[in-house]
Write a structure and sequence with these properties.
Pfam families: YjgF_endoribonc. It comes from Kribbella karoonensis. By secondary structure, the protein is of the alpha+beta class. The protein has helices spanning 4-10, 60-82, 107-122, and strands at 28-31, 34-37, 43-44, 47-48, 88-99, 129-135, 144-152. The chain has a five-stranded mixed β-sheet, with helices on one face. It has a two-stranded antiparallel ribbon with strand order 3-4.
């Protein structure tokens, strides 16, 4: 299997710098062979890709792009904790929070922006359990937030 960062490059993507926390927490914590990330917002070069609610100011397509960026930010946090994404054994669980209008029911499709990336980068090791949850609001008025549990070697 190719190195995960080579797979990202093939997709035209690269890992960003680890996003600075917006409050009192750390981006990721390792315990044993598991890494838990804090919720990652769709920050690209320090700026949110979009703000607002999915189903109103944010389209599902833009929200899916936000979920992918959250996933990249989470992978950057994992790499900072373990040194090399080649040490990822499996993406165990992803949780996607989608700030959405009360009538929006496409949270799973938005979360696919993250889930599909994990599959493209890690193949079978990217298959994971997942929750996609609609919420009324997220920090900084972000439309999406993603957190991970990752098993590492």
């Amino acid at each position: 299997m190719s190195h995960p960062e080579e797979k990202l490059a093939e997709l035209g993507l690269k890992l960003p710098e680890v996003a600075k926390p917006v409050a009192a927490y750390v981006p990721a914590v390792r315990t044993g062979n598991l890494v838990y990330t804090s919720g990652q917002l769709p920050l690209r070069e320090g700026t949110l890709i979009a703000t607002g609610k999915v189903g109103d100011a944010v389209t599902p397509e833009v929200a899916s792009e936000c979920a992918q960026q959250c996933a990249l930010n989470a992978l950057a946090a994992v790499k900072a904790e373990i040194g090399d994404l080649a040490n990822v054994k499996r993406i165990v669980k992803a949780v996607a929070f989608i700030a959405s209008t009360p009538d929006f029911t496409g949270q799973p499709q938005v979360a696919n922006g993250a889930s599909e990336l994990f599959g493209q980068v890690f193949a079978e090791a990217g298959a994971h359990a997942r929750s996609a949850v609609g919420v009324p609001v997220l920090p900084l008025d972000a439309p999406v937030e993603v957190e991970l549990i990752v098993e590492v070697n």
